[in-house]
């Protein structure tokens, strides 16, 4: 973990550049900036993770994970296919979703350990997460041969078009997303780790009001002994203005990494959640 600390800055920069590309793809640019040109047959690249140690860039796309050489973006390509079974896709379409949206859009990629990635995809509107071994670039499998999956609800949106963000802090995933099929229930939570520590925001529009998540960051303890914090950047509908029209405003929210919730009504809820307007 320590060794990768220096890698954070370039990784963040690269990630930001790529997420802009990905947003472009969502806006209908067809992912032309990074997509079909370099990677024929690969659609909707929407997540990226850089290993500065090995110089490998991992990309999450539609039903596909790619591993490419970050320097050339073309040589040493490897791909993993992670698809949704046909009958499950049919169920998704029966619920009124389009054929195109009932795929597995891989939206979350984070290192759990040095050589293990946590990947989450929309999985035909039933989000699932899996582990990737980076040594041989493969999906971890169950004894029976199937992909080892974990529920992705609250970690990754159901809808591939919805904005979300995640950050991994010492092997634990913090996520800002929505956790229902309709995409109407936003939350910021500690999404992995021991069950009793899966703390989240209250279901109330004063905590989060139609948010669009942008990014998240871990800030380590500083010299003054201020403890570790997780920051989330997003925009939301401002409730402080009593106007007829909806006003979107930029926000930053902060929770303490050590927050494991409170007592009684605050069980499994953040007790350190604070948010502020960004000017
Ligand atoms: C995937 O990309 C296509 C164009 O390449 C675009 O029309 C479609 O909206 C994208 N889908 C999602 C879920 O972003």
Automatic annotation (TrEMBL):
Q: Give me the segments passing through the membrane.
A: none
List, alphabetically, the GO terms of the cellular component aspect: plasma membrane
Tell me yes or no: is Glycoprotein among this UniProt entry's keywords.
yes
Q: Which InterPro entries match?
A: Semap_dom, Semap_dom_sf, Semaphorin, WD40/YVTN_repeat-like_dom_sf
Q: Which PROSITE patterns match?
A: SEMA
Give a GO biological-process term: semaphorin-plexin signaling pathway
Could you tell me the keywords of this UniProt record? Glycoprotein, Signal
Q: Origin, by domain of life?
A: Eukaryota
Tell me where the signal peptide lies.
1-24
**Chain ranges of the Sema domain:** 20-279
What is a single molecular function from GO for this protein? semaphorin receptor binding
Keyword Mitochondrion listed: no
| Family matches, as PANTHER family | SEMAPHORIN, SEMAPHORIN-4F
Q: What is this protein called?
A: Sema domain-containing protein
Lineage, opening ranks: Eukaryota, Metazoa, Chordata, Craniata, Vertebrata
